[in-house]
Amino acid sequence: MNKISSLFLISIIISSCSTLEQSIDQLYKEVRSSSEYTVKENETLWSIALRNNTSPRKIALRNNLKKPYVIYPGQKLNLSNLESIESKITTAIKWKLPTSPSIKQNREGNFWYIFNGEIGDPIFATRNAKVVLSGPVLPGYGNFIMLDHGDSYLSLYAHCKDIFVTKGEEVLSGQQIATIGSSEINKPTLKFQVRKSGSPVDISEIKFN
Q1: Residue 130 banded pLDDT, cuts 50, 70, 90
Q2: What does residue 109 show for φ and ψ, rounded to 5 degrees?
Q3: Strand ranges inside the chain, DSSP E
């Protein structure tokens, strides 16, 4: 191989390596960008966890956040590999339907049930529980209720109209806790989710009585 050919081949190799490195660098930036979350005004770890189908605890552990887990607008949070922090726990148990059986059930992704009823339709507690959140406490979810059922289970009820329970109150399975509304959404909707150990339970695991 003559000198000119050798120089040409070396030039191609260097150019290819440079292009490859640029591609890898760009891919890394895209992956890092996709797993980096910028905290917005009025957001909490709970609201961010809900939007990303994970648990506040996992986000806190991934980002070395200490109690009381204060976050601020503009803060960057790493949301990568959250499922590796703790194993996801799901189990099939019986839940009471959270609203009237005549209201059609739909699904949003793998973790939310959607009930598109009418304004004022009843919302029921799905099991005996203690109210841990009540009111417009999570941006994007309107009037909101979170119930603690013990054994690390929570149930969530979003976009309510009237709420009939307060934080700390004990409720019974089947008790009316609210009515369907359209708070922070464009039509009457109940969004319902079950969580285990902070993480959402796949709706295929949720069995209604």
Answers
A1: very high
A2: 65, -150
A3: 36-38, 76-78, 93-95, 105-108, 112-115, 122-124, 129-135, 143-150, 153-163, 170-171, 176-180, 190-196, 199-200, 206-208
| Most confident of the following: 48-52, 74-78, 92-96 | 74-78
With left for phi above 0 and alpha for psi between -120 and 50, is residue 186 left, alpha or beta? alpha
Domain ranges of the chain: 3-84, 93-208
Q: Where are the beta strands (DSSP E) in 29-91?
A: 36-38, 76-78
Residue type, 24: I
End-to-end CA distance of the chain: 80
Q: Which CATH architecture has domain 93-208?
A: Distorted Sandwich (2.70)
Compute φ and ψ for 190, nearest 5 degrees: -115, 120
CATH 3.10.350.10 assigned to 3-84:
yes
Query: Residues 65, 34, 184, 115: what is their CA dihedral angle, to the nearest 10 degrees?
Result: -100
Q: Report CA 108 to chain centroid distance, whole Å.
A: 12
